[in-house]
Write a structure and sequence with these properties.
It is a single chain. By secondary structure, the protein is α/β, with parallel strands linked by helices. The chain has helices at residues 8-14, 16-22, 26-44, 81-92, 105-113, 121-146, 150-153, 156-168, and strands at 3-7, 47-52, 63-67, 70-74, 98-101, 117-119. It has a six-stranded mixed sheet, with helices on both faces. Strand 5, helix 5 (105-113) and strand 6 form a beta-alpha-beta unit. The N and C termini lie far apart (61 Å).
């Protein structure tokens, strides 16, 4: 299973739809990103870590929440998202397929040297948009396949009566 590490605030600051929301509330931007990547992760079958900096928060401990194959991580005091991602990639980088999403060129370089592939935040944005379209098409197709028309559910005699009533009014 492919593992993806996402620098959360880097993505929020890069994606046009999240960047606008963050002007009002980082909490809203974080939640929108989490919801979007939950769908993406389920569709792709990846294990994903969205890492948010909490290194400036006094006394903060590392916090990790799991939602399916999606892990939301807030770093501990003194540890940036970049350092967390570098540490994790260093620990598991050559054992499995790993990708890192960030526009920070230094982090991209370091993680690449440790065995991970890299993708910029804006490249990832277009990847996610593409997957959202595929999800929408798949969902619409399922809905249309399950949809039954009235004609399919009632007998011909009743259908004829209804048609007669419709035409007389």
């Amino acid at each position: 299973m492919k593992t993806v590490f996402v620098d959360g605030y880097n993505v929020i600051n890069s994606w046009p739809n999240l960047n606008m929301i963050k002007d009002y509330s980082y909490e809203s931007s974080r939640q929108q990103l989490i919801d979007t990547l939950q769908n993406y992760t389920e569709f792709k079958g990846y294990k994903m870590f969205i890492v948010f900096d909490a290194h400036m928060v006094k006394g903060s401990l590392e916090k990790k929440e799991k939602q399916g194959n999606l892990f939301v991580v807030f770093t501990k005091e003194g540890e940036t998202a970049d350092k967390y991602i570098e540490r994790m990639v260093n620990d598991i980088g050559r054992k499995c397929e790993i990708s890192v999403v960030t526009s920070d060129s230094l982090v991209q370089q370091v993680t690449f040297q440790r065995g991970a592939t890299r993708m910029s935040s804006i490249e990832f944005y277009y990847e996610v948009i593409s997957i959202e379209k595929k999800i929408r098409i798949k969902t619409e197709k399922k809905y249309l396949e399950k949809r039954n028309s009235l004609e399919e559910r009632i007998d011909e005699k009743t259908l004829a009566k209804l048609e007669k009533i419709r035409r007389n009014h």
